[in-house]
Specification:
Elements lengths: L7 E5 L6 E4 L3 E5 L10 E4 L3 E8 L1 H4 L3 E6 L3 E4 L5 E7 L2 E8 L3 E4 L3 E5 L4 E10 L4 E9 L4 E5 L10 E9 L9 E5 L6 E6 L6 E8 L9 E8 L1 E9 L12 E12 L2 E5 L6 E8 L7 E2 L3 E8 L5 E7 L9 E8 L3 E10 L4
Parallel strand pairs: 5-12
Antiparallel strand pairs: 1-3, 2-4, 5-8, 6-7, 6-9, 9-11, 10-12, 13-20, 14-19, 15-18, 15-20, 16-19, 17-18, 21-28, 22-27, 23-26, 23-28, 24-27, 25-26
């Protein structure tokens, strides 16, 4: 009811959240008398649901599912991996599952509600394999030498990938290379060498099927130069292949006569981890790693060089991701940089 209305033409329009009205509005003419019977019929606005499942249940149970689009919300999949969103109006939505340590296929799904609920919005989850760095040993020579031997180190368990990261100086003649790596009772194989600029940055691999106890690793160089070697072991790797070949994915090199160190690769497996080794021939200067990265070891050599090992802070969840190992400073020195992807068990 509207009181104190003077004669004239009016439009009456009802509105209430969650309801539709018939008619949507009415025209009313008031002429020196009350007007009654201006009636409307209210009906609830139809709502719908999105219903789905995340399998297997070992991954799906407890997964957080997020809804965005015409409405937003989150829910948690039950012990069977089932989830649902109710009370939705027609419109376009996106459903995205997330869970620590898991990857999903597809990563999200677009859902359009027209005039009915949508069921069977399914996802398949998988546990993201976990890599970890175990033992680590390094040697900075300080003075020119044709060999580098690490202090003794031990690993905590079997089936470890060992990587030797070697960075060196250059004096004259052909550029420096690592001729071989020996000891620890393992067979070592070159993964990647970058020595376009003066000095070399190399990654070598081996695989230890049993735990190692107080072993050393020796690198033999083509010249007697100042150098640095870091050896690290990794657990949770792919044990296939020979001498750790199954645990190495993509590799990439970077070098420049002047510029900030950078190299980039595209990952080939969920949960892989990217490491790199570099040498700065021009200065002994601390590097500033790029976003999400850490310097594992750095040697500001008395010869005026910098040798370093660098890593992404965490494994990369999804394959097909472009990963960069880079430094924002220095920006004007010569460098060689070798990077590789470490693969978790499939």
């Amino acid at each position: 009811m509207f009181g104190q209305i003077v004669s004239g033409a009016y439009t009456i329009t009802p509105a209430k959240a969650g309801f539709l009205f018939t008619p949507a509005s009415q025209q009313v003419a008031v002429s020196n008398a009350n007007v009654s019977g201006v009636n409307f019929t209210a009906t609830p606005v139809p709502t719908y649901s999105i219903i789905g499942t995340i399998s297997p249940t070992s991954v799906g149970a407890g997964t957080t599912v997020t809804l965005t689009g015409a409405a937003t919300g989150t829910t948690t999949a039950d012990s069977s991996g089932n989830y649902s969103f109710a009370g939705l109006l027609g419109g376009m939505y996106t459903v995205t599952p997330t869970k620590a340590g898991a990857a999903f296929n597809p990563t999200n799904q677009a859902v359009t509600i027209a005039s009915a609920s949508v069921a069977n919005v399914k996802f398949t989850g998988s546990v993201t394999p976990t890599l970890s760095m175990d033992a680590r040993s390094f040697l900075d020579s300080g003075t020119a030498s044709s060999t580098l031997t690490t202090p003794g180190f031990s690993t905590k368990s079997s089936n470890k990938l060992l990587l030797a990261f070697v960075a060196t100086d250059y004096l004259s003649g052909t550029n420096t290379t690592v001729s071989q790596i020996t000891d620890a009772g393992l067979t070592w194989t070159l993964v990647l060498r970058t020595n376009v600029q003066s000095g070399t940055a190399e990654i070598w691999r081996a695989f230890a099927s049993s735990a190692l106890n107080n072993v050393t690793v020796t690198a033999t160089l083509s010249h007697s130069v100042v150098a640095s070697m870091t050896v690290a072991s990794f657990s949770g790797v792919d044990p296939s292949g020979t001498n750790g070949s199954g645990a190495i994915g993509a590799t990439a090199s970077g070098n420049a006569r002047t510029g900030a160190p950078t190299a980039q690769l595209v990952t080939t497996r969920n949960g892989s981890w990217v490491f790199g080794v570099g040498n700065d021939y021009d200065k002994a200067v601390a590097l500033t790693p790029g976003t999400g990265q850490t310097i594992v070891h750095q040697d500001l050599a008395p010869s005026g060089d910098t040798y370093w090992v660098q890593m992404q802070n965490n494994p990369t969840p999804l394959s097909g991701t472009t990963v960069t190992i880079n430094d924002t400073a220095p920006t004007g020195d010569r460098y060689n940089l070798s990077i590789c992807e470490i693969l978790p068990a499939p």
